[in-house]
Amino acid sequence: MFNMRGGTFLSLFLMLFIPLLFIIGFYSREETHVFLNGFHSPFLDTVMKYWTFLGDGMFQVYIVVILLFVSIRFAATGLTAFLLGGLSVQFLKRVVFSDMVRPVKYFERMGINYDLHLVEGVDMHYWLSFPSGHAATAFAMFFAFALLTRNRVVQLFLLVISMGVAYSRVYLSQHFLMDVVVAAFLGVFMGWMGYFLIQKIEKAWMEGSIVEIIKR
Q: In percent, how much of the chain has pLDDT > 90?
């Protein structure tokens, strides 16, 4: 499995995230959040504050634009995965689980007397908690990219970026652990879908860049 396209990413993802499914099944959302919220430092505050933007929609659009100058196929794969991940998670957030609140609001509603560690300068959100949009789109796009290569180092790098985005959402108390774990599985599936759909397009121009197409 490790030698497959995306095999390293997928294998390590399953090894790490399947146990997390059991954790969120056995422990309440407040228990896991209080536990994880206890691990913080000024260094992590700074790193997570900026790492979380790697799952932001605008950042991913920038990646797609840059990739247009490398390979149309790479750009199309990333864009398709991003759109599938983003649209599916927004549907779940706004239609199916619209009443799910985020950690700060949840603790307030439940009257839980715990002083959450919040990072200064981060604009806190209170609604539409489940699932995490940042985590879903990050795993969707970066897994789709991992499927384009057999290079294990590149795949590992893409997995670390995705996991960092997911963890940052919990670290910043923007989401519960269950929000990002479910989003990660959703993202991986949508990333595969995006890759599969673009691979079905067998056109020579897809392998070139936007510059090469313009010059023709």
A: 85
The domains of the chain are located at 7-19+28-202
CATH assignment of 7-19+28-202, given 1.25.40, 3.40.50, 2.60.40, 1.20.144?
1.20.144
Cβ atoms of 64 and 137 within 8 Å: the answer is no
Show the DSSP H helices in the chain as ranges. 7-26, 29-37, 42-51, 57-67, 72-91, 103-110, 133-146, 152-171, 177-199, 210-215
Measure the CA–CA gap between 70 and 30, rounded to whole angstroms.
45
Is-cis flag, bond preceding 131, omega within 30?
yes
pTM for this predicted structure: 0.94
CA dihedral 91, 94, 98, 101 (to 10 degrees): 100
What pLDDT digit, counting tens, does each position of 103-139 carry? 999 999 988 888 899 999 999 999 999 999 999 999 9
Tell me the two tokens of residue 58: 């605008």
